[in-house]
Design brief:
The structure holds 2 protein chains of 2 kinds. Helix content of chain A is 21%, strand content 26%. By secondary structure, chain A is of the alpha+beta class. The chains are: A alpha+beta, B mainly beta.
Chain lengths: 979, 87
Amino acid sequence: MSRLASGGLIDRARRIPFAFDGRRLTAHPGDTLASALMANGVRLIGRSFKYHRPRGLIAAGSEEPNALVTVGAGAEATPNTRATGIEPYPGLAVFSQNRWPSLGFDLMAINDRLAPLLGAGFYYKTFMWPARSWERVYEPLIRRAAGLGALSGARDPGHDEKAFAFADVLVIGAGPAGLMAALTAGRAGARVLLADEDFRMGGRLNVERLEIDGAPAVAWAAAAVAELAALPNVRLMPRTTVTGVYDGHTYGALERVGRHLADPPEGLPRDAFWRIVAPRAILAAGAIERPIAFPDNDRPGVMLAGAVRAYVNRWAASPGATAVFTNNDDGWRTATDLAAAGVPVTALIDARPGVAPPDGPWRTFTGAVVTGTRGIRALRAVTVRDAHGERSVAAECLAVSGGWNPTLHLSCHLGARPVWDAAIAAFTPAPDAAPGLSAVGAARGAFSTRAALAQGAAAAAEALAALGIAAADQAVPYAEDAATTITPLWRVARTTGRAWLDFQNDVTTKDVALAAQENFRSVEHMKRYTTLGMATDQGKTGGVAGLAVLAELTGRSVAETGVTTFRPPFTPVPIAALGAGGAGRGFAPHRDTPTQAPIAARRAPLVEAGLWRRPSYFPAHGETTWREACDREVAMVRGAVGVCDVSTLGKIDVQGEGAATFLDHVYANTMSTLPVGRVRYGLMLREDGFVMDDGTVARVGPTQFFITTTTAAAGQVMAHLDFAAQCLWPGLDVAFVSQTDHWAQIAVAGPKARDLLAPLVATPIDDAALAYMGCAAADIAGVPGRIYRISFSGERAYEVAVPARWGAGLFDLLVERARPLGGGPYGMEALNVLRIEKGLLTHAELHGRTTADDLGLGRMVASAKDCIGKTASRRPGLSGPERQQLVGLRARDASGRLAGGAHILEPGAKAAAANDQGYLTSVCWSPTLGRDIALAFLRDGRARTGETLRAVCRLRGLDTAVDVVAPPFLDPDGGRLRG
Amino acid sequence: MRIACPLCGPRDLREFTYRGAAKLLDRPAADAGPEAFDDYLHIRENFAGPNPELWHHEHGCRAWLRVVRDTRTHEFLATELAHEGSR
């Protein structure tokens, strides 16, 4: 193996240093890692999955099953990358995989000696007892012994992107068919996307010695690419694999953007995952050659015939003395091309008797097969059997062609099954396999260059007609138009030894035979039993041969046997590319309240509430625990005044002549009777009768309401209102808009709340002017806003609202003015304690499985009007003593601890599900009551006030005596609220 | 999948939220009784073929759409604003 003295599409003037397993080697621009390794004489590239057999290249494209390497090291290492798809750059370091201690000397190769024990399904049969050993012993053992590359486990620092593209015509593959299709569509003015896996477009035209219109095909391809590049309506996407076909003419594609660059510019992504929308697509993905199974056909040096001449023609990389083994005419090209390039060809072995292969400086065998190979880590000779017997033929490379399989994978992604074509002994895409997608050229089973060009032009013309784009007829260039002649040969008969079908997963004909013998006769069962066609390879080279062997063994035709299902992606897509932008904050962005800056300035630890971050508490000097701060803040609100941001509440402005009627429909209680300037607590039901959300409704004008939702349910409520207005009562004159982000809303709570606010508000807010549950437009510290007298703490309280940009200033002002009154800011911990003490609800209680009656709010479901959920809420079983009802629980002793999620049991009852009486939803230490308290749901709870029960939490080891009380725990008459 | 919003044009599936059968448009009258509501809430045909469905263009114009989707092919055979749909 070496570089030929001339030829190839490489720039010999420039040298690229790179390293393979630390060995320093040189490539040229135009090389792939695979061609560079071959030119450097590297045959052994990897170890096989199960048996750790030495393996080398067999292919030149993305179908390569063996030559998987890890690119780079450390956190950004990318394992399982095909050497055929890597472009060397200065400093590239790649590493072989699945070997220890080294590629050349791999101790796990002992597996190969144990092969008789390790056939298909061996682990199902072997590692059975004891069952508990599976997770701890067997699985880790198997995973270590068999496998491919490994991730580092470190956080991936790489940068990837997602992108969207739209086109009239997407052309997949830039070989003769794809280029001709793109030219036809592009010249007509259609928006064309041409995607190709390779960095150099041209497909087989770059690797064959062909002529188009009398000129070298390579030149024709280069001219076509240049013309396309100059068209403004055509976008060329090299290094881009279309990986999947999805509904609605949508295609997924992976573009390797920066992986081939030694020093990518700042911000350039490593990969981009594209979603491409195109009403018409042309599948010109070519074909994949298939191997023939014969003993030891996995030895490094046994390659696919088309790949061997690709390495010679495109990269001037010589495989060394080569024998060719074929069952079709196309294999002959490898012998003639190699001889023309000066590579010794030792034999041309054609399995078909009576054919007349071309003459050349080689021994020709017809009606002959290869029955074995020799060599340790690389091929030295092959054994040929014909009518005259067996003989040995020297060969460093055996170029095998078992025929070509159209690359039809994408055509099957929407569920279509391919069709067997006996003439070419291959599956072809079903007509209309995917809407808008037509296969052309080799992907459709038309293997001649002329047919590829003609079908590419025809499919583009058809697409243009469908799109209504006028196009001139394109003359189809002249090119070879050889017929496909092939006699199927899947495995060489009458041989002993293991013959590989799936190189990547180490599946041999014996494994398929075992599957058939054990009655795994469906291809899908055989695949899973033997692992043929699994992993990154998905049977690209071995799949059809595997099922053909299964067909032979089970006495069925290949067509009857069928193929396994092709699913996206066509080639592996890094999760990092699929999830680009979705890590960290991209997964869950932060929403900051308008008061974020003053809260941060007061060093408040933040807690997450959905996407929001809210202050947990405001630490004071000398406080060492959150409890100290929380207890102080609670006492501050109960004794003086506290200031708290409540901007995260969902806020919706509802307007229109029909607004009042609309709110009557969506709230369980009546809102149309609410006077202007008043606020009412509102309860929203789902149509199935359960509680959806609660909040407040303020009537700010005759036809204008301002409603709030809980922080958690803001989005859900908005969608619900959209549904009610558009789908259920479309005739109503009502419009609404979310104003959650527009208003900064700040609660001012405590007996001195009015003292704090009055000097700042231009209008009077004494109890006559603004009674409990009143609201008014107000000038607040010079800013037009609103003031609501509502309370989530049980204290006299106001919520003041100003446009969001004034929120930070208002918060600062209120906190500053609160200090002299003995007040200050309070956070979520104190807010939660205050509301639990007052028996007020959050989504801990409104968790989707509670009804209005469960919550003690059954009477809120107005009887005089209909509302969403009213009928269903009256179903039997949704109210009454058999249900768990909201109660308060108070720890009997001040030292008794409670915990959210604890279950309620009778005294003396065994802690078992059958004895469960209910559960605790909200728990806190009440500084006001001096003990733990909880809101809980207790079976027939309202009738059980005064009982003593137990709150049991096994996770925390709690079993605490509790008294059942009717919430609220504090000020049941609301005297503090009204002042 | 892509859905042709009557207001916004064809848009990516990710902008939409699926709600369920378009039967939800036919809310029974207030006095229709529990059986009618049970049928409205819970009983679905769920057949393989063209199904009338409700989708919400939640991350777009927020229109509720009544569509006919073939559940075998995911083809959208009709798309209209829910309140303009045949009721």
